[in-house]
Design brief:
Blueprint (H helix, E strand, L loop, with lengths): L7 H12 L18 E2 L3 H4 L10 E5 L8 E6 L8 H7 L35 E5 L11 E4 L5 E4 L1 H14 L7 E7 L1 H14 L7 E7 L14 H13 L7 H4 L10 H4 L7 E6 L3 H8 L8 H8 L6 H17 L10 E5 L10 H4 L6 E2 L2 E2 H9 L7 E3 L16
Parallel strand pairs: 3-4, 3-7, 7-8, 8-9, 9-10, 10-13
Antiparallel strand pairs: 1-2, 2-4, 5-6, 11-12
Amino acid sequence: MAPSNVPAALLLLLLLAASGPLRPMLSGAAPLEPVAVSLLAGAQEKGAVCLDGTPPGYHLQRGSGDGSGSWLLHLEGGGWCSTLKDCSGRRMSVLGSSNFMKPLQFAGHGIFDSDEIYNPDFYNWNKVYVRYCDGASFAGDAEGQAQDGTTVYFRGLRIYEAVIGELMEKGLANATQVLFTGCSAGGLATILHCDDFSARFPQQVSVKCFADAGFFLDVKDISGERSFWSFYNRVVQLQNVRQVLHKDCLANKDPTECFFPTELIKSIRTPMFILNSAYDSWQIQNVLLPSSSSPEKSWLSCKDNIGNCNSTQIKVLDEIRNTMINDLKVINDKADWGMFIDSCFTHCQTLFRISWSSPTSPRLGNKNIAKVVGDWYFGRSQGVKEIDCEYPCNPTCNSLPPP
């Protein structure tokens, strides 16, 4: 099975887009209006189009007060497509066509929340949620022919460049501080584009990158196959992502290797924060236990809920954790980088109030994610690098919603 299922956080946002405004907030305040979709101007002329040829979209909510000059840009996630058939199929969904994009509710959604209580550092910033409709982490530049003879457009790189260009004209060029983020496949996109994005601003502007659940691992599945590497290899070849890969990596390694964050972070110069679970539910379900590995019944139960895993299975999951921790060691030598690696069975933690900042959020060093990220961005504390102990050591993980 191609790992293209929608992460839980993204799914929630899509459901909200379909169902309209949220119920009243926990604080008792009335819900804010959903944020409309802005379609990219001149998309066809720029060749910056979704898989079906429609213009890409984004949601822009203007900042206020002392946040008027600050910008938060978030790249949406949603898996990848690695074959013409899969990519053609995505054209009939929000992940491949702007025809299905609806207004989104930012209120109550973690780092997008406008409530100062729950999002104290970024609540009044200009916020942009960039929709994902190319299937290759905003990185490809190619096209193909579907079985029905129509064109499938792999234009993620052009979408990224054109959307950033349009936002520059709408005030981003005058920003005093910027946080460039993304979740899941959007988290990988954030890593891929981090240095290019920061290079668009004068040196005095504070530009930092923040990847949520985007640290995908090159590990074997339970059958011993590198099935996820093979999947990434098909994405790289089909969608031609080579242009966004670091040249120093390409000089020594295969392009597919250079598409993995383990290699990418070695070359990035811009300050970055990595937020990930060491027991990432999406990676356990799709990288370690894809359907192609034919997991037996006990593994299927473990795959659905880490609480069902036996001690032998937990040891296998611990090996995944150890691989991630080892791959992240390079960050220890980057003084202006940060990380929050918890042990929660979850995926994408910035888009939920319950995981971003609430009384029941995951905590490391007695700080929740919002506090640690804010301390890192604003330089309020040194060495913001938090790594959790092994599952099931952290009781604050119990409050997270199902993945």
